[in-house]
Design a protein that fits this description.
Elements (H helix, E strand, L loop, with lengths): L2 E8 L3 E4 L6 E3 L26 H8 L5 E4 L23 E3 L4 E3 L5 H10 L3 E5 L7 H12 L5 H8 L10 E4 L14 H18 L4 E5 L11 H10 L5 E10 L5 H4 L3 H21 L7 E11 H4 L5 H4 L5 E2 L10 H16 L4 E7 L8 E3 L5 E3 L3 H10 L3 E3 L2 E3 L2 E4 L3 E4 L1 E8 L3 E8 L5 E8 L4 E9 L19 E2 L4 E3 L2 E6 L3 E9 L2
Parallel strand pairs: 1-22, 3-4, 3-13, 4-7, 6-12, 7-8, 8-9, 9-10, 10-11, 11-13
Antiparallel strand pairs: 1-17, 2-16, 5-6, 14-15, 16-20, 18-19, 20-21, 21-27, 22-26, 23-24, 23-27, 25-26
Helix pairs in contact: 3-4, 3-5, 5-6, 6-8, 11-12
């Protein structure tokens, strides 16, 4: 029997405006993310600079607004100077984070060209592990100073006459983690963060500096780390980076996996509280915004246990080995869509979010060397949100049945958010976690004269269905008939275990 879900939104109850930079991505020169994924000079579709155009076409359809580079764990020992100048003169180095060899065939300038071609912003990450302030200001000078200094003229000699004009700078990556090369203590990193940000702000006060906050709410340093970093660096930073990965273990059930938004909500609310508390303590005038510059859903076994290495024949010190490559399922697409709904609910504090990673490594896009590129099921919720999630997020009250989870407690079967787009359109994003369809009745207060444009559904009879090179459209969106708006109320059927995008427009 179908379940009934009742939702209410009001034109005047606004959470905030969704930042365009919430639709960011992240790629790192590890594994086959850049090499064989994005950059493959011998591929039939490659352009003169070696970029795969079949991949670029899929990337364009995601409408990505910003990219974070070069990492990631790699950043902690990365020497940005290795990736500039003639390729034949670039050194290969042991890359300690992923126990592989980095040949530096793709570096800063190639990356920035790629991003500019997409019309996106750059979030450049400093090495705050083995290096620090001097390397950071040198990188800013190389990238952004017009000319007349040693490093800016070096950039011009490399063929880039105009400055890159990067505005967003990340002060390291996951520097509190035991897994990091050159892990920091809070008191050391907080002071280094302050001094580096101060120096970069002196180069241009308009630069946006992002400190590395907690990379997981499960770490013993969680919250204490964020308090210390913000207390030390508040005067010179603009944003705080956190990472939000949802692990799925092989022993997890679908209901438990799809309950993770309970924990994510608590994580975000706690960090937001710390930011407000430090602002009050400092008698500050600025709000520290959040940058979720790494987020995704992922297999615990593949990422943390590296369980895929033996079957892929991966050995230490290979050049760009096929690491952390996950085949995503329909179930993963639901989990990822739920994360996006939570980010919309917190759009008044989240300015930047970068899904991790772009191609092959925990990615929405997969490739074969010399062969095709295709979309994974997780591609679609991101694409839909990036395309239809711009505008104002409205308070969306959803009343529905719930189920009990041993860890998370009461979990609603349906989660949703309404976005008021530009041009008199509304978009309702919703996930049904139930194994039965739900009848959704949404009261549109202040939006009574609207009609349905389309109802997009992503679902599959098999929650573990995947897309492959030979069956690229096994899991893909389709439109559904039957949704209507009548008497100021949206009536729609949410299929079992489904991701839904319901678009409405003002007028008959």
């Amino acid at each position: 029997m179908s379940k009934t879900v009742r939702a209410t939104i009001n034109r005047d109850f606004v959470i905030g405006r969704v930042s365009d930079m919430m639709f960011g991505h992240y790629f790192e020169p590890i594994g086959r993310c850049t090499h064989e994924g994005m950059y493959e000079p011998d591929h039939p579709s490659a352009n003169a600079k070696g970029w795969r155009q079949d991949v670029l076409e899929l990337v364009r359809d995601l409408h990505i607004t910003c990219f974070r580079y070069p990492g990631g764990n790699l950043t902690a020992s990365y020497r940005w100077e290795d990736g500039i100048g003639p390729r034949e003169k670039r050194p290969a180095r042991m890359e300690l984070a992923w126990v592989s060899v980095e040949d530096n065939s793709v570096g800063i300038n190639e990356y920035i060209e790629y991003v500019k071609d997409l019309g996106a912003e750059t979030l450049m990450t400093f090495n705050m592990g083995t290096r620090g302030l001097e390397s950071a200001v040198d990188l800013v000078e190389y990238c952004n100073y017009p000319g007349g200094t040693h490093l800016s003229d070096l950039r011009r000699a490399h063929g880039y006459e105009k400055p890159h004009n990067i505005r967003y700078w990340c002060l390291g990556n996951e520097v509190e983690g035991e897994w990091q090369i050159a892990q920091h203590r809070a008191e050391d990193y907080g002071w280094l963060c302050r001094q580096t940000a101060k120096a970069v702000k002196r180069m241009d006060p308009s630069y946006q500096l992002i400190a590395a906050g907690s990379s997981s709410c499960s770490l013993p340093t969680y919250i204490d780390w964020d308090i210390k970093i913000l207390d030390d660096a508040y005067d010179y930073i603009d944003g705080l980076a956190i990472h939000c990965y949802t692990d799925r273990r092989e022993t997890d059930t679908t209901p438990h996996y799809l309950a993770h938004t309970i924990n994510l909500e608590q994580y975000l609310s706690s960090i937001e509280g710390v930011c407000r508390a430090i602002k009050a303590k400092k008698r500050g005038k600025k709000d520290i915004w959040l940058s979720i510059d790494e987020w995704n859903v992922q297999s615990y076994e593949i990422v943390h246990l590296q369980a895929d290495r033996p079957k892929r024949g991966i050995k230490p010190w290979m050049v760009h080995p096929p690491i952390i490559e996950q085949t995503y399922t329909m179930e993963d697409a639901l989990a990822l869509g739920l994360q996006l709904i939570v980010y919309f609910r917190h759009c008044n504090t989240i300015k930047v979010a970068c899904m991790s990673l772009l191609v092959n490594c925990l990615s929405p896009i997969m490739t074969e060397k010399g062969g095709p590129a295709w979309r994974q099921p997780t591609y679609y919720p991101f694409m839909h949100c990036s395309k239809y999630g711009r505008g104002r997020a409205l308070e969306t009250i959803v009343n529905c049945e719930s189920y009990k989870d041993d860890l998370y407690g009461e979990v609603p079967y349906v989660e949703g958010i309404m976005i008021q787009n530009e041009g008199d359109t509304l978009t309702f994003f919703a996930v049904n976690k139930h194994d039965d369809e739900c009848i959704c009745l949404c009261n549109l207060q202040g939006f009574e004269d609207y009609r349905i444009l389309e109802h997009i559904v992503l679902s599959h009879e098999d929650l573990f269905a995947v897309n492959t090179s030979g069956d690229q459209d096994n899991v893909k969106p389709r439109t559904r008939d039957g949704s209507i708006v009548t008497g100021g109320e949206l009536h729609a059927v949410l299929e079992k275990y489904s991701w839904n995008v319901i678009r409405m427009q003002k007028g008959a």
